TrEMBL record, chain B:
The chain crosses the membrane at residues 12-30, 76-100, 112-132, 158-184, 205-230, 267-288. It is a multi-pass membrane protein. SUPFAM superfamilies: MetI-like. It comes from Gordoniibacillus kamchatkensis. It comes from the Bacteria. This is Sugar ABC transporter permease.
Length: 309, 302
């Protein structure tokens, strides 16, 4: 009798612990869901605020400031922006720099990385080390500035926004890691057929590397599209401003009307704050539109980079 | 002799590397001569070799004031905050995303969290303005809660934490992808046997997940520590810009040398600051690579 009671008690106690534990587990899971949802919101809400407030009038802005849900909608800022000369100029500058820069960068990086990864190249380790060292140390701001401005005379030209970013060591190493994972037999087969190394590279290696090359291209494209450092250092001429620098100009105090209008005169006052936001919306527009695509390739690229250290 | 022979034998391959080598020479290695300017009173007209040598004058000027201490402290302190909270938060996030069962929730949250990584610091800066300006969202909320509005861009002491928050916001997605990739690679057998032994979720995280991704954490830490003397110019200058009220807590070596060059036109002093930064940076890398070999022989960088 006594024994069975004890056994029974033990049994219920055990089940109680089990349910307690699963209650705790459930609460914990709930907490994790809440945390992730909350942080996701924190990540997206600023985008919403920029978008929503870009559609308000200046009067509304002066009265209420930034709002989560503006109580008045207006296209003033977009009208103003698209009728002025500066926005289209800046947009085409950014587009040009991004397209030309990405193509050149990818070609140079893909070729360079192939040499770094090729087992027949005796000096590949030295080259890799020099590339790594360049990534870590860099040339230093002043030397770099003098090189670009005084020796290469690239100030106030669109090339200055392209050339200094042609080879990103980090992206090169992503490609090196990929090439190294290719079977060596590819080389041997081609060599037997009497193909040269260059022919082999363009005809065989490049086609099978397309997914990684696509990833690296997107890395470069985003870098060129988002950069304003080079423009800040080397571009004074408004006509050559890329979009990012246009945003910066709009944020610093200056005559928005004459900057955005590009000489055209307006009878209405410029909706200053909304213009800033509208410019930002149109600048990050392509990124948001291409986002599903970008995300997929970036995740792939980052993962390769991470695995290879 | 061997050198020429090697190049000639594989000339087709070396030719492929030529544009890259020219690039590295032009934009990384030749500019290193710029460090000489740290010992000159540089005049652009006279060039690097024609300007007057002034010995250590530029360094005396830089180390004579208090600025160097301030910018060095800010650079290191901010980078430590970014590294600690950036990685810490991303690890927590990656583990949670991994634990959440629903596939849709996983995909959706990852998409949202990764989004800020893709925008420039200038855009981030404008978003911050929407929240923190005097008539921004933050102050609206405060006023609704009956609290006085805060002039955020004047509250110097808050900025290291504001910047840390923004850093976490922008890079949590990026780092959590790296950690997730490592977590997915952990064998499920560990978790199954832990479950049989009655380990809770939390215990599994602490005793299985975190130790398994240790080497990834160490590598990222080391990469960060190696760059501890290099501030993120784009971030700091994009957000703080020329708002000198915030300099006491936000001015880093990179923004300082930038201003010396572009606003004061003082090439010598700017160059001295950059050289100081490079030397400190090199020491940091060597020191912590040594440390890495001791902690975890697999994760040393070279």
């Amino acid at each position: 009798m006594e024994n069975t009671a004890a056994a029974l008690w033990q049994k219920t106690a055990r089940t109680r612990i089990k349910t307690d534990r699963s209650w705790g587990e459930k609460a914990f899971l709930l907490f994790m869901y809440a945390f992730i949802i909350l942080f996701s919101l924190v990540c997206v809400v600023p985008f919403w605020i920029v978008l929503a407030n870009s559609f308000t009038s200046e009067a509304n802005f002066l009265k209420y400031g930034y709002q989560l849900f503006p109580n008045e909608w207006s296209l003033d800022a977009y009208n103003y922006l698209l009728h002025g000369g500066q926005f289209l100029t800046s947009y085409s500058n950014s587009l040009l720099v991004t397209v030309i820069g990405t193509v050149l960068s990818v070609v140079i990086t893909a070729m360079f990385a192939y040499v770094l990864a090729h087992p027949k190249v005796k000096y590949r380790r030295i080259l890799a080390f020099l590339t790594y060292l360049a990534m870590v140390l860099g040339g230093g701001l002043v030397g770099f500035y003098i090189m670009v401005a005084n020796w290469l005379h690239l100030k106030d030209s669109l090339w200055v926004l392209i050339l200094p970013y042609l080879l990103n060591p980090f992206y090169a190493f992503i490609l090196v890691a990929f090439y190294k994972s290719l079977p060596y037999e590819i080389n041997e087969a081609a060599t037997i057929d009497g193909a040269g190394d260059m022919y082999l590279f363009y005809r065989i290696i490049v086609p099978i590397s397309t997914p990684v090359i696509a990833t690296v291209s997107l890395f470069y494209a985003i870098q060129y599209w988002n950069d304003w450092y080079l423009a800040l250092l080397f571009i004074d001429n408004y006509k050559l401003h890329p979009l990012q620098l246009m945003i910066r100009q709009l944020m610093s105090n200056l005559n928005v009307a004459s900057y955005v209008g590009g000489g055209a005169s307006y009878r209405v006052a410029a909706p200053t704050s909304a213009i800033q936001l509208a410019t930002v919306c149109l600048t990050i527009g392509p990124i948001v539109l291409l986002y599903p695509f970008l995300q997929k390739y970036f995740v792939k690229g980052i993962t390769i980079g991470a695995v290879k250290g | 002799m061997g050198f020429i022979k090697e190049i000639a034998k594989h000339r087709q391959l070396y030719v492929l590397a030529v544009p890259g080598i020219v690039f590295l020479a032009l934009f990384s290695y030749i500019p290193m001569f710029g460090h000489l300017i740290a010992f000159e009173r540089f005049q652009p007209v006279k060039g690097v070799w024609g300007s007057k040598w002034v010995g250590l004058n530029n360094f005396k000027f830089f180390f004579g004031g208090h600025d160097w201490l301030r910018v060095t402290f800010n650079t290191v302190y901010l980078n430590l905050l970014f590294l600690l909270f950036g990685l810490g938060f991303a690890i927590a996030l990656a583990i949670m995303i991994n634990e959440v069962g629903s596939k849709i929730a996983k995909k959706l949250s990852q998409s949202f969290i990764f989004l800020p990584y893709f925008i420039s610091w200038l855009v981030v800066s404008l978003m911050m303005l929407a929240f923190l300006s005097t008539d921004g969202i933050m102050n609206h909320w405060l006023q609704q809660a009956g609290i006085d509005a805060v002039n955020w861009y004047q509250r110097v002491q808050l900025w290291p934490f504001i910047l840390t928050f923004v850093y976490v916001w922008k890079f949590a997605g990026y780092y959590s992808i790296i950690f997730l990739a490592a977590i997915v690679g952990i064998s499920s057998e560990y978790y199954e046997s832990a479950k049989i032994d009655g380990a809770t979720r939390l215990q599994q995280m602490v005793y299985i997940t975190i130790p398994s991704i240790r080497s990834v954490i160490v590598v990222l830490m080391l990469l960060g520590v190696g760059r501890i003397f290099f501030g993120d110019f784009g971030m700091i200058y994009g957000i703080v810009g020329d708002n000198s009220i915030l300099y006491p807590t936000t001015d880093v070596i990179d923004t300082y040398s930038f201003r010396a060059l572009r606003q004061l036109g003082n090439f010598g002093m700017s160059s001295a600051v950059v050289l100081y930064q490079s030397v400190m940076g090199l020491l940091a890398i060597l020191l912590f690579n040594r440390l890495a070999q001791k902690i975890d022989p697999d994760s040393s960088l070279f």
